[in-house]
Write a structure and sequence with these properties.
single chain, 318 residues, alpha/beta
């Protein structure tokens, strides 16, 4: 797993966090167990990622499910480089000034998807506030390249917020991903400390706008708990997402990448996660994934099949 001390040349991984006071790191409870993997399939997946010069959020964000997912040839592609222009307090992705876009990347991603034989792929990216369109065209090009190589593969995108990038969202939606995901990450009261470069109501409006542009497109959002939020704030956030007609909600435990990142306020019990799931279904989400190790792209292929089935059942009952 990458750490705060990692460098590219002489550049630290998180220069903006280097001088922050250390935050306490809480011991993980018994119900959070992360398994590593040394299976041949894990190694094969890793080799395909390396051969195509790809970056994965699995590695860059230190995802706890990498052992499980890569052993099933499931890797979440992170495009537009490994360096983000934002400095979110929870995130372990490298921050700084990114390199120029790799124009071969869409084809490289499509090649890896074909080699991995994926039925469903998740493509995410760093924030690229330095680009006029926030990288929207590059995301669209990647969707189209995958469709050309693997026409039967469904594509899920997990996008930046395209803050102050007029027309960017429309470019991505026009490429017709099967699922449009944008994570709110946390409740609005935490944004100044957890996600300072973003705006809660802009992100909410982004998700609502997707449905206005294409009512048939599945929308999805996720949040972390354990960042100091109150239960009533989580429930209000669910209501906000339903007002934006979001179909799928994921809720997972925040895990602190280093002493310089935002501290974990508390570990949410499996029973509390189940309670959130029950509440979310009662509010009308088609699908909910709520557990300590839930992450946006974990089991994404299986979840997409459930999402389609849930919509069909809803339409049949109408």
């Amino acid at each position: 797993m990458a750490t705060l001390l990692d460098t590219i040349g002489d550049r630290p991984r998180h220069p903006e966090k280097a001088h922050r006071p250390d935050q306490p790191v809480m011991k993980k409870p018994d119900w959070i167990r992360v398994r590593s993997s040394s299976s041949p399939v894990f190694t094969e997946t890793k080799n395909i990622v390396r051969e195509n010069n790809l970056v994965t959020v699995c590695e860059e964000a230190g995802c706890p499910n990498i052992g499980e997912c890569w052993s099933k040839k499931h890797a979440t592609m992170m495009i537009m480089g490994d360096t983000c222009t934002r400095a979110c307090a929870f995130c372990n992705v490298r921050t700084g000034k990114p390199a120029a876009l790799d124009l071969k990347e869409p084809e490289n991603v499509a090649n890896a998807v074909e080699k991995l034989g994926l039925n469903h792929v998740v493509v995410t990216s760093v924030d690229r506030d330095d680009l006029d369109d926030g990288g929207a065209q590059h995301i669209a090009d990647t969707i189209l390249a995958i469709r050309k190589r693997s026409p039967n593969t469904t594509v899920e995108v997990l996008t930046p917020d395209f803050l102050r990038k007029d027309g960017a969202l429309e470019i991505v939606v026009a490429a017709k991903p099967d699922v449009f995901n944008h994570n709110l990450e946390t409740v609005p009261g935490n944004y100044l400390t957890v996600r300072p470069g973003a705006r809660y109501y802009h992100s909410m409006r982004l998700l609502e706008r997707v449905k206005e542009l294409d009512p048939t497109m599945f929308t999805k959002s996720g949040m972390m708990v354990g960042l100091g939020e109150e239960r009533n704030e989580v429930l209000q956030m669910m209501d906000d997402l339903r007002m934006a007609n979001v179909d799928f909600l994921t809720i997972g435990q925040y895990l602190q990448p280093s002493k310089k990142h935002h501290a974990v306020s508390h570990f949410v019990t499996p029973e509390e996660f189940k309670s959130y799931e029950t509440a979310a279904y009662a509010k009308g989400f088609l699908l909910v994934s709520s557990s300590p190790l839930t992450r946006s792209s974990h089991h994404a292929g299986e979840d997409f099949a459930k999402l389609k089935a849930a919509r069909q059942a809803q339409m049949s009952a109408a």
